[in-house]
């Protein structure tokens, strides 16, 4: 006999109970019904979520702890005994219908990119930063590049269908931005096919994800994860649950805000706001910072902070040019205005780029580093050939950028320039190294 039936019988067959006792019994039944409903809901959820909810239920219902634990144990055992068996298929290369697979039979592949060396395919990519850094502009710019197939800073872009899921701005404002972006790229906004660049402003992200699964999209941009989340951004259970849903979508670009600076925080170690699982469950992450430049320009630093598929790439300096009623993205060298967001290595390289030649003390002063830290990193950079010793000033060594970091270096490459892939590679080299093509007879080797 269940507790619920027993309580009902108590109420029906014990007329001598006073009204207060009856109300207590009814209240007890309501609490147990709520506990039963909650336990049923969390049975198949993430363990971190279950444990947190169980602790919360025990704290809120101290008189029913025994009932909670007893009922949860019943459901746990029932769930364990009723689990479906997992099949083992030695010939399968992908897990289907709860099948184990033989991992060595899975085809060996290299990581794929939607945007070469920038946006990784079939995983969650994340760009985060403070408000006003240009995240939404950059995301819409990327959407247009993918929808059109135009290159990103010389990197190859795979043309595909894009869905922009917007929780922050209105369609009218985004349409204005689209016009500026397309003008800067010399694209007619009306030239896209209707399914190339889709836009929607839903209310709830978790509820909308099943709808997205019904459409084959090559890139899904979510602006932003904080605004679209219906749960608590600091709760592991909510973030883990949402990211498990997002993994089903393929190539995803999330935008997010960063946590506020607190006393003792370092700017170059800031992470997305909320649960650490945002960072842990994303596979490719960039931190965007910006400072106002001159002539209607925004100087930006895009710092690679995590990648599960390769080493971290060097920080990218970007210039967002809003002049001429357009939006143009140019690549540039990050300056000392971003020194607090850079690591020691990048700070030394930026300082030497500004100074040309300098002693360790001058480099430390320019970058705002401790002399000991600067000297230790200079020694490592010298061994790696990234900086070189070019003279003495008294007993102090004078350093400059090594050949790899110097502008104006000459690279001798003989290739078949008629191949599209080679042409794209050459264009990437030109933009990356700030280089120019010269005739072979003019090359001094």
List the helices and strands and how they pair.
Blueprint: H1 3-13, H2 19-42, H3 47-60, H4 65-81, E1 87-89, E2 99-101, E3 113-115, E4 119-120, E5 124-129, H5 135-148, E6 162-166, H6 171-185, E7 197-200, H7 205-213, E8 219-223, H8 225-228, H9 236-246, E9 252-257, H10 277-281, E10 284-292, E11 297-307, E12 316-321, E13 328-332, H11 344-355, E14 357-359, H12 360-367, H13 371-383, E15 387-393, E16 396-401, H14 420-433
Parallel strand pairs: 1-2, 5-9, 5-10, 6-7, 6-8, 8-9
Antiparallel strand pairs: 3-4, 10-11, 11-12, 12-13, 14-16, 15-16
Helix pairs in contact: 1-2, 2-4, 3-9, 5-6, 11-12, 12-13
Provide an overview of this structure.
The chain is an alpha/beta fold and 445 residues long. The protein has four domains: 3-81, no CATH class; 113-338, P-loop containing nucleotide triphosphate hydrolases (Rossmann fold), CATH 3.40.50; 343-405, Arc Repressor Mutant, subunit A (Orthogonal Bundle), CATH 1.10.10; 407-445, no CATH class. Helices cover 38% and strands 19% of the residues. The chain has helices at residues 3-13, 19-42, 47-60, 65-81, 135-148, 171-185, 205-213, 225-228, 236-246, 277-281, 344-355, 360-367, 371-383, 420-433; strands spanning 87-89, 99-101, 113-115, 119-120, 124-129, 162-166, 197-200, 219-223, 252-257, 284-292, 297-307, 316-321, 328-332, 357-359, 387-393, 396-401. The strands form four sheets. Strands 7-6-8-9-5-10-11-12-13 form a nine-stranded mixed β-sheet. The model is unreliable at 407-416 (pLDDT under 50).
